[in-house]
Amino acid sequence: MASGKLGRIFHYRGTYLQDWPVDPQMPLYWRFRKEKSGSGSLGDILSHSLDLGRFVLGSEVTEVAAALETFVKRRPLPEDPKRKGRVTVDDAALSLVRFANGAVGSIEGSRFATGRKNYNRFEVNGSRGSVAFDLERMNELEYYSRDDEGKEQGFRRILATSPARLLRGVVAGRPHHRLRAHLHPHRLRLPPGARLRQTGEARLRGRRAEQLVLEAIERAARTRRWVRVAAL
Q: What proportion of the chain, given as a percentage, has pLDDT over 90?
């Protein structure tokens, strides 16, 4: 992205899928109560995919359309399993987004994607190439370049922990729990000249920007209309 090898950016496609609450007999604990958790899949996992998109594209979201869905409406009460209480958060959150740099995107977070355990994947498509990453295959990066010769064009798998790209403390070629920590936007190694939010004030500003997008997604889902994201 920073080197311009992807060219003009057209799309960001972020997906974060889990399946842990698919069982309708799972008790109504705090994650299913809006007054305690704030939101469901929207704030729990879509927020991570949104944050990745803002960081990777280096651009803020300006407008959203969205849908929120709760599939299991009532769950057994922890203190009395024979009784049920109402689920007040979303099980799935889907959003279409527009970025300030002209790119468009889709961002999805669902805790009802049966079979998906921690499927956090994003893909970026540009005029010169594309990249894709999946946290469940954290050693690998997919890369496509239109600059390759025609017969050789195609997505290639790059080992992200090869010696040339090695992150401090990670053994080449080995899946490692420390790699996940390194993937946090504030710990990524960036090419020379790339800008990174470093100060506490800038980080708080970034979190505020993210929260404004999440609030816009909630409004868009409620009104079934495109919603502009409020300015900082």
A: 73
